[in-house]
Amino acid sequence: MQKFKELSFKEKLEHIIYYYKWHIIIAIFLMIFSGSLIKGFIEQDKNIPLGTLSFQGVATDFEKIEAWEDMVTQKIKKADTQQKVRVDFYSISLDGFDEYSTANMQKYVTLAAVGELDVVCVDEDFFISQAELGTFMPLDTLPELSVIIENNKGNIKKLIPKEQTEEHIYGIKVTDLDAFKDLGYNPEGMIMAISASSKRLSYCIEILKFIFE
């Protein structure tokens, strides 16, 4: 039998294909599958928000909102980060729950429960109802926000949540801030807070710094 090294290039190729055909097919399949899997992970990572800013209200100008998301993302993101800040709106009214308001409330509560709610901006009634349940983070326990709290003494919101004994700062009232001038939505008079279950605390802090500093 002729030795493999004595075969011509064409004969060697035919020999390899004949004896290792299925090995080659499986290897190619695994390479394609691995590539698709890696691409999927990359795309999935891009779809995870850098941080969310949730407003109680109704979106009006989606182009301005998207441009504002991009602008805030560029201000606070770390290098080589593909994720972006996402702005969400929730039409919630405590005066009378219609079907749409109920659905928005359910979505809001669900996202808060799984840690996918970050910075929120809500009216005072809704803020108090949620803060009393302990769903917001005490801002005065975050040293990074000490300057913001000091500069907004007249707008901080303190309270003692149910089943707790200590008073803390849980929100800051929004006044006429330049940060929102290009948003196409005026949240003046509403209160900003950080969800206690947020998984992205560092970016929550950066969002508040951008807005209030």
Describe the protein in words.
By secondary structure, the chain is an alpha/beta fold. The chain has two domains: 4-44; 49-212, 3-Layer(aba) Sandwich (D-Maltodextrin-Binding Protein, domain 2), CATH 3.40.190. 45% of the residues lie in helices and 14% in strands. It has helices at residues 9-47, 62-76, 99-113, 124-131, 146-151, 201-212, and strands at residues 51-56, 85-90, 119-122, 156-159, 168-173, 191-194. The protein is elongated.
Distance between the termini: 82 Å
- Please state the second-level CATH architecture of the largest domain: 3-Layer(aba) Sandwich
Which spans have pLDDT < 50 for at least 5 consecutive residues? 37-46
What is the gyration radius calculated from CA atoms?
26 Å
As for the number of domains, it is: 2
Could you name the CATH class of the largest domain?
Alpha Beta
How would you name the oligomeric state of the polypeptide chains in this document? single chain
